[in-house]
């Protein structure tokens, strides 16, 4: 199987549903926040009762345009709404209002950095639509909460430019940090305000033609996205390499068995009987409206990264990584205010502390206060402490919430450069290791290393290695 897997590559496109954090729903004035007593935030428009007329919430349109600008899209001056018809209990109207033919944004892209290389993932379209209600399965019954029905969503559809689980995860992380910057959604994957569908097919690396594609619905964590792609990739490869044809299916990912399971055979476009929404006129956006949104955009990760390189002088890789996570960049900027060694500071964040900035939020208990990290970077930059001590200090000051300078003093963690102490350390090492000493004197120069190593051990890893080396050579020369 391994062997067959190597001949194939995954072709992946994503559909990302992102709930917009407007105060009210997309087409009525019901409250749209997450939660609330079940079915307490609904009205005749939500249910599509006879005579109820939907009207577009312009805040939702503005938020969709913000997303489009942030994702380098073309904004449509005219877009329109359609009905997507299907029957499912979470959809009280029997149809969903969406934008099938004329979406509000098209042709954007995001640059990601995956496995050390930059890659551009194109975005085909962003359309505005409404969410469905929520089915709650309990004690053999199914309950329905329509509070979510009608909450505005954008669906971001990528081109099939993604070729591995890792790239898909990096894309979603980057997308999430951009959307969070624009403040149009809270992007909480665990609460369902950001959900991802994966379209995946496999093809031989040498083939141009794409294989039959399946869709995995409603993935709600970055981890699940990676696992689902990996498992579906191997399932498809194992069938295709044996010559068994695949069928177009809609699947779900089972986190327990870590495998993809068939939900239903894929609906075709015609099954939805799309037609123009008769109750909502086309959305016409003026130049003023669009340029107003453009001018109100915050600093996005890409810009941030450029500023970190030009103003703070840190490496491009560190800048890209830090700017791609909003918590990490806020933390870095706070620490940078009082720090003189910014490269050291940024390296500490990317190489040691980055795992604390997780996909489901930041684990503050693993991070020192930003001011304290800045002290550690300065202590390290001036050579007062070595890199091992720096790591230890990050842990200690995260735990104790104390100033690293105080900890260094209290626990005597500064690098030892005092000549007398260095002399004593080498003297002690030499008297403990008569054999190494005589080996060295008989010309086995490598014995010096073990003597210096012993002295370093005796200093608790704190002595200056160059001074130890120098002193060992001196003392051994005297003995010759
Ligand atoms: Zn309503």
How would you portray this structure in words?
- The protein has 480 residues and is α+β, with helices and mostly antiparallel strands.
- It has three domains: 2-293, no CATH class; 299-410, no CATH class; 419-479, Orthogonal Bundle (Arc Repressor Mutant, subunit A), CATH 1.10.10.
- Helices cover 40% and strands 21% of the residues.
- The chain has 17 helices and 18 strands.
- The chain has helices at residues 2-7, 44-47, 58-70, 165-182, 222-240, 287-295, 301-312, 316-323, 326-336, 342-353, 370-381, 387-400, 404-410, 419-432, 434-441, 447-458, 465-479, and strands spanning 8-19, 74-75, 78-79, 82-85, 95-98, 105-114, 117-130, 134-138, 141-145, 152-158, 194-204, 214-219, 249-254, 259-265, 275-276, 283-284, 357-358, 361-362.
- A nine-stranded mixed β-sheet has the order 2-6-7-10-1-11-12-13-14. A three-stranded antiparallel β-sheet has the order 5-4-15, with no helix packed on it. It has a two-stranded antiparallel ribbon with strand order 3-16.
- A hairpin with a 2-residue loop joins strand 6 and strand 7.
- The longest helix is centred in the middle third of the chain and has 19 residues, at 222-240.
- The protein is elongated and about 100 Å long.
- The chain starts with a helix and ends with a helix.
- The structure holds zinc ion.
- Zinc ion (ZN) binds at residues 25, 28, 30, 42-43, 45-46, 150.
Which short descriptors sum up this protein?
480 residues; 3 domains; 21% strand; 9-stranded mixed β-sheet; 18 strands; alpha+beta; Arc Repressor Mutant, subunit A; 3-stranded antiparallel β-sheet; binds zinc ion
């Amino acid at each position: 199987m391994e062997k067959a897997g190597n001949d194939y590559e995954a072709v992946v496109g994503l559909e990302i549903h992102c709930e917009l954090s407007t105060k009210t729903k997309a087409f009525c004035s019901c409250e749209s926040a997450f939660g609330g007593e079940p079915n307490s935030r609904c009205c005749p428009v939500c249910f599509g009762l006879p005579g109820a007329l939907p009207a577009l919430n312009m805040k939702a349109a503005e938020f969709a345009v913000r997303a489009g600008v942030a994702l380098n899209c073309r904004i449509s001056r005219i877009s329109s709404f359609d009905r997507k018809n299907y029957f499912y209990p979470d959809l009280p109207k029997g149809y969903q209002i969406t934008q099938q033919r004329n979406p509000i944004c098209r042709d954007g892209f995001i640059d990601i950095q995956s496995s050390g290389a930059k890659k551009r993932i194109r975005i085909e379209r962003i359309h505005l639509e409404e969410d469905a209600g929520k089915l709650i399965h309990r004690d053999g019954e199914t309950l329905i909460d329509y509070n979510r029905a009608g909450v505005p969503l954008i669906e971001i559809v990528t081109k099939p430019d993604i070729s591995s689980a890792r790239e898909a995860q990096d894309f979603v992380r980057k997308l999430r940090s951009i959307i969070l910057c624009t403040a149009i959604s809270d992007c909480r994957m665990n609460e369902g305000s950001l959900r991802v569908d994966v379209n995946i097919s496999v093809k031989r690396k040498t083939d141009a033609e794409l294989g039959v594609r399946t869709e995995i619905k409603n993935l709600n964590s970055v981890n699940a996205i990676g696992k689902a792609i990996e498992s579906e990739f191997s399932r498809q490869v194992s069938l295709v390499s044996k010559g068994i044809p695949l069928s177009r299916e809609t699947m779900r990912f089972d986190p327990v068995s870590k495998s993809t399971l068939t939900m239903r055979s894929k609906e075709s476009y015609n099954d939805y009987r799309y037609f123009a929404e008769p109750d909502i006129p086309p959305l016409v956006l003026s130049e003023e409206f669009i340029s107003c949104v453009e001018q109100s955009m915050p600093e996005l990760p890409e810009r941030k990264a450029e500023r970190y390189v030009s103003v703070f002088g840190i490496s491009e890789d560190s800048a890209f990584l830090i700017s791609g996570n909003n918590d990490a960049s806020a933390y870095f900027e706070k620490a940078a205010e009082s720090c003189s060694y910014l490269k050291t500071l940024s390296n500490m964040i990317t190489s040691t502390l980055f795992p604390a900035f997780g996909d489901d939020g930041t684990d503050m208990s693993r991070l020192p206060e930003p001011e304290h990290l800045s002290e550690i970077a300065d202590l390290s930059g001036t050579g007062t402490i070595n890199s091992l001590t720096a790591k230890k200090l990050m842990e200690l000051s995260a735990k104790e919430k104390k100033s690293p300078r105080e900890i260094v003093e209290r626990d005597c963690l500064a690098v030892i450069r005092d000549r007398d102490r260095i002399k004593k350390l080498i003297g002690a090492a030499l008297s403990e290791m008569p054999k190494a000493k005589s080996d060295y004197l008989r010309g086995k120069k490598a014995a010096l290393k073990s003597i210096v190593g012993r002295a370093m051990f005796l200093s608790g890893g704190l002595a200056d290695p160059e001074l130890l080396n120098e002193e060992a050579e001196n003392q051994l020369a005297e003995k010759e």
